[in-house]
Amino acid sequence: MIQIVNLTKNFANKSQMPVNVLKKISLNLPDKGLIFMLGKSGSGKTTLLNLLGGLDFFDHGDILINGNSTVNFKQSDFDNYRNGSVGFVFQDFNLIEDLNVMQNLALPLHLQGKKADPVMIKKLLKDFDLDGFELRKVNQLSGGQKQRIAIARSIIKNPSIILADEPTGNLDSKTGKQVLEIFKKLSADKLVIIVSHDAESAYRYGQRVIELQDGKVLSDLSKNNVSPSPQQGFNPKSFKIGQKITPEILLQMQNQNQNDFKASFIATNQVANDNTHEHREMIKIGSYLPLKLAFKMGMSYFKEKKIALIFFLLISALMLYCQIFTNAAFFGVKSLKNLQTHAQQLSLQESLKKIDFLDKSIQFFLQFAETTISNGTKNMLYLNLIVFITVFFTVGRFVKQSIQFKKKEIGILRALGARSRDVFKIFFSEGFVIASLISIFAILFFYFIPFRNILIEDVVKKMINFYVVRLENCEQVSIIQKLPSELISIIGKMKDDLISFRENIIFYLHLGIAFLNIVVSTFLIVFISIFYPIYNFARKKPIEVILNR
Fold this sequence. Notes:
The protein is α/β, with parallel strands linked by helices. The chain folds into two domains: 2-224 and 255-267, Rossmann fold (3-Layer(aba) Sandwich), CATH 3.40.50; 291-450 and 512-546. It is 58% helix and 12% strand. The chain has 19 helices and eleven strands. It has helices at 45-52, 75-85, 101-111, 118-127, 143-155, 173-186, 199-205, 247-262, 291-298, 300-304, 306-347, 350-353, 356-416, 420-448, 456-472, 477-482, 485-499, 505-538, 542-546; strands at residues 2-12, 18-29, 33-38, 60-65, 68-69, 86-89, 161-165, 191-195, 208-213, 216-223, 265-267. The strands form two sheets. The protein has a seven-stranded mixed sheet, sandwiched between helices. A four-stranded antiparallel sheet has the order 2-1-4-5, with helices on one face. Strand 4 and strand 5 form a beta hairpin. Helix 11 packs antiparallel against helix 13 (356-416) and helix 11 crosses helix 14. The longest helix is centred in the last third of the chain and has 61 residues, at 356-416. 34% of the residues are buried. GO terms for molecular function: ATP binding; ATP hydrolysis activity. Residues 2-239 form the ABC transporter domain.
């Protein structure tokens, strides 16, 4: 099923010097069976397991799966292969804390675009002696229960390969034996590969044991069906009552158990192997994370950082409220521009041209309105720029912290077969919620902190009062009385319309545009600010996310 050909993998150390972790390893692995990989820390066994699961890329050589080369595989190809064919089990269980047992078990099915069957999940839990655990929270489980659920999750999508990295490392000996018995049962029709330090368990339960040292295969042994001949070693009968157990004697006792099982193993190349690695279809399934689950995972950081979230939302909303203020100011200034147009129309009246004072008053107003329009536009642009920069960095920092918080969850998803676009979906869901909350807060600010007295009814009212009062106090009252009734009505209408600007339908139209602008601006700023950190995070290799590199 799997053929490893001259596989080489290098890493860069702290000095950026290449370190050869795997050195031209070649192995043939069968369609089914229980295989253990032994070796000390740094021997390369976990690296080899990660390469077999498509969590990382190899540098040289090839891995053929059902006769299909993976040399030219992209990350998405490995993700699809892992989603369709591989089940992972880790030492620290890697269950998602925010999901209950049933939701954790259903996750691999969701990623395959399938609907989880509660009846089937309950039956699976019963098979693992976990009947009635469907709605349990992860933090309510013991270590052994978590590991059994992790194994159940790995097989629920019926993969052809199960990869386990130190699955008994955090378990007591009794629970560890139960887990290994489960793996042995699964190996009857699946290929199960376990990385372990426990040589005794490897030879007790395994059908094949591969030992690595310094990136090379030190030994490759397979179980022989012939019963082993008695082995010489430590004899318990020779042990005298009251005799002190020295470290040497203890080591002999441990090795005796290992040797008893190891005696039934012979070199793999001496065992008949009918696995010809013929070319067969490789099961690859593109992942699909449901939107509801993406939103649930996207908002997990909100629960942990409630105070920080509220502070962040208030700052961002306050800045965007200022943008509403500047937009309203802009529309208020446009009203001055309309007044300017009215004044220009008045100045065309022959009767007004004969009044020097009134003409000077109009000219003064025209200059004032023009200056106000110019300054208002500049101030609006400056403040909008400040708002954009502030919200951009505030949101960006919040999302970066969220990425750090969710790294473990995302690592679990990637190990299960999730693609980069699923990562985007999670954080874009979070961004959508953030943008919506900021918009709501900004509009609430407007409702509770009205700006109309600050600008619209203040500046405009003062200008109209200045204009009209000066006109009404004109010494040439008789001339005012001679003005056409139409002119008087125009001046009165200008005054009434602008003082009651807030009640005018145009005001609400402008206000609606301002709110729409805020919503659009908020979503635009939020998604621009979160795209780059999410892009960098999503394009990482799964192993980099899992190991928090």
